[in-house]
Amino acid sequence: MSKSREAKKKLVQNILINLENKSGENREHLQRMKRTAAEFGDYIDLKIDAYDVMRNKNIYKNKMTKKAAIRELKSCSGTQFDPELTDKFIDFIF
To answer: Which InterPro entries does its entry note (predicted)?
Structure first.
């Protein structure tokens, strides 16, 4: 398994563990998210891809600092990204 795939697997496991340790209300949210592993993986992929694009230079723009990338993730939380997963992702990368 590639390093990036291993890192994603570890991230998903950590997020699931954190969500499972929450109150009953969040467990319902977790159950909705666990409908299929593919859907959940897609949520994670969106954040990983977005963060990767922000942190690396590309033909459209220069790379962002880690602090700026996190600000951008937070600003998109609730619109482009699930707020709870975004918070967990930010905690994980810090």
So the answer is: Cyclic_di-GMP/3'3'-cGAMP_PDE (IPR052020)
